Amino acid sequence: MHVDTKPFEPKIVAFMCNWCTYGAADLAGVSRLPYPQNIRPIRVMCSATISPHHILRAFQSGADGVFIGGCHIGDCHYIKGNYMTIKRVAFMEDLLNWFGLEGRLHLEWISSAEAQKFVDVIRRFTEKIRALGPNPIPALLKTPKAIWNGADDEGHCANVA
């Protein structure tokens, strides 16, 4: 029997504001500052455009952590975007805690000139997720069909009356 001995490497979805955090990530790359390759960057126009659906879908799809990076408070190009993000992330943290995913969502304000801060934050968050281990949700979604009352492998119920 073959046992996989590869160490766990987390998959982190990183939603980054176009104007600030994405610029910091770009500057880190241009400056050749090394940071973990575990993130999958997604550029958004504003951190406020990230809905709870996007966060939940990332975890459902197998992400071990979700990072949200936006402009510093008062520097949002859309005036109050990051205030909406604060409320949304606070709500999502409570919801994720209820699901047993505490500590897997991280919000940080990083300006486009803060490449080193970006690197440090990504490094710390990656280590935190590595210590937490894999996201348990995908394994839970593969529960036996009997529990799902006739669901197929993707969780769709065929015989719903």
Can you describe this structure?
The chain has helices at 21-30, 52-60, 81-98, 115-132, 137-141, and strands spanning 12-17, 39-44, 65-70, 105-109. It has 161 residues and is of the alpha/beta class. The chain has a 4-stranded parallel sheet with strand order 2-1-3-4, with helices on both faces. Residues 145-151 and 157-161 have low confidence and may be disordered.
Proportion of residues in extended strands? 5-15%
How would you sum up the global shape?
globular
SS element count, helices: 5
Element string (H = helix, E = strand): EHEHEHEHH
With strands numbered from the N-terminus, the spatial order across the biggest sheet is 2-1-3-4
Low-confidence segments = 145-151, 157-161
As a percent range, the share of helical residues equals: 25-40%
- Measured between the Cα atoms of the first and last residue, the distance is 43 Å
Class from secondary-structure proportions: alpha/beta
Q: Report the count of strand segments.
A: 4
